[in-house]
Specification:
The protein has 251 residues and is of the alpha/beta class. The chain contains 9 helices and 7 strands. It has a single domain, classed as NAD(P)-binding Rossmann-like Domain (Rossmann fold), CATH 3.40.50.720. The protein has a 7-stranded parallel beta sheet, with helices on both faces. Strand 1, helix 1 and strand 2 form a beta-alpha-beta unit.
Length: 251
């Protein structure tokens, strides 16, 4: 495909981890990509873009805090100016704070605000800003990267679980609101082998967490990217669905 024919995907939080894996998977399929990062991961974002360009894709880097409606709208306008279209949005940006669920006093209002702002408000802001561009395409799709924490209530903190539970519900609401022109789905990973997880857990803690799973290992970012691509491109009659990819943790 030449540049004018290439479809375009925006992946928020795509400097590292699942977001980067999604960018590279879409690039391998011939999509042009928008790499988003909030501020601290500039070098990683540039590396993601280089890896995508090595596969023949055009890569646009956008610094944007998705919890800021103003910044999100500016990012989407920049995408329209530079690439002229938007076909797929993947909301992969996310934050958490590791606080034991029993430690109610340890979860501050500032932590609540940061988690909900990025994990719940952020996807809404991105989708709202992108709606106009997406509706120009005949098969536009949105995939929200949620978490099994939003289903089980077990995760890094109560606020994180709540934010992902809200994202799951919002996915269903938006699937109705944007139908039939835009499909909206979510993927709910279990534990992922990521810098984020390894920053706050030891190898022993990780091994203990996955030992009882039917598939006793961490998912890779690529495992989740495969599911994101499936929901975005591999089905035409799936919308409002919450697809769990967790090695059997929730069964």
């Amino acid at each position: 495909m030449n540049d004018k024919e290439n479809k375009v995907v925006l992946v928020t939080g795509s400097a590292t981890g699942v977001g980067r894996a999604c960018v590279l998977k879409f690039a391998s399929l011939g999509y042009d990509v928008v790499v988003n990062y909030p501020g601290a991961d500039k070098e990683e974002a540039e590396e993601t873009a280089r890896l995508a360009e090595a596969q023949g894709s055009k890569a646009l880097i956008e610094r944007c805090d998705v919890s800021s409606d103003e910044q999100v709208r500016a990012m989407v306008q920049s995408i329209e100016d530079a690439l002229g279209r938007l076909d797929i949005v993947v909301n992969a940006a996310g934050v958490t704070h590791f606080v034991e669920h029993s430690d109610l006093q340890g979860l501050s209002e500032a932590q609540w605000d940061s988690i909900l702002s990025v994990n719940t408000k952020g996807p809404f802001f991105v989708i709202r800003a992108a709606e106009r561009l997406l509706k120009r395409q005949s098969s536009a799709t949105i995939v929200n990267v949620s978490s099994v924490a939003g289903i089980s209530g077990f995760g890094s903190s109560i606020a994180y679980c709540a934010s992902k539970g809200a994202l799951n519900t919002m996915t269903k609401s938006l699937a109705r609101a944007l139908a039939p022109s835009i499909r909206v789905n979510a993927v709910c990973p279990g534990p992922i082998d990521s810098r984020w997880l390894r920053k706050d857990m030891t190898e022993e803690q990780i091994a203990e967490r996955v030992a009882s799973l039917p598939i006793p290992k961490l998912s890779s970012p690529e495992d989740i990217a495969d599911t994101v691509v499936y929901l975005a491109t591999g089905t035409q009659m799936t919308t409002g669905q919450i697809l769990v990819v967790d090695g059997g943790r929730t069964i």
